[in-house]
């Protein structure tokens, strides 16, 4: 019986359908968010392009947006 249980357990683990995604990031993995925007100078009526970049982690991002996501789901 123990041998059969072990075999069933091995088969269950091997056939779980869950594949490991080595590219999936989470937790304390680093995250870089970047973007750009255009600003109009009202005095000179010229446009200026600006870029920005934030280095963070997934944990930090979800600490900040988590409450808003939960609030939105409850509405």
Estimate what percentage of residues fall within beta strands. 25-35%
Order of helices and strands: HEEH
Number of helical runs? 2
What does the main sheet amount to? 2 strands, antiparallel
Radius of gyration: 24 Å
What class do helices, strands and sheet pairing give?
Answer: alpha+beta
Average residue pLDDT = 83
Strand neighbour order, sheet with most strands: 1-2
Number of strands: 2
Cα end-to-end separation: 52 Å
| Share of helical residues | 40-55%
Q: What best-fitting shape do the alpha-carbon axes yield? A: elongated
Low-confidence spans: pLDDT under 50, at least 5 residues? none
Kindly describe this structure:
The protein has a domain of 48 residues. The protein is 40% helix and 32% strand. The chain contains two helices and two strands. A hairpin with a 4-residue loop joins strand 1 and strand 2. It is elongated. The mean pLDDT is 83.
How are the elements arranged and paired?
Blueprint: H1 2-14, E1 30-41, E2 46-57, H2 58-74
Antiparallel strand pairs: 1-2
Give a concise summary.
This protein is an alpha+beta fold.
Descriptive key words:
alpha+beta, two-stranded antiparallel sheet, 75 residues, 2 strands, 32% strand
């Amino acid at each position: 019986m123990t041998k059969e249980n072990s075999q069933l357990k091995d088969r269950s683990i091997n056939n779980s359908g869950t594949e490991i995604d080595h590219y999936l990031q989470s937790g304390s993995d680093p995250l870089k968010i970047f973007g750009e925007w255009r600003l109009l100078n009202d005095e000179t009526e010229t446009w200026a392009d600006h870029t920005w970049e934030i280095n963070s982690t997934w944990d930090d991002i979800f600490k900040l947006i988590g409450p808003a996501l939960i609030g939105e789901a409850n509405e």
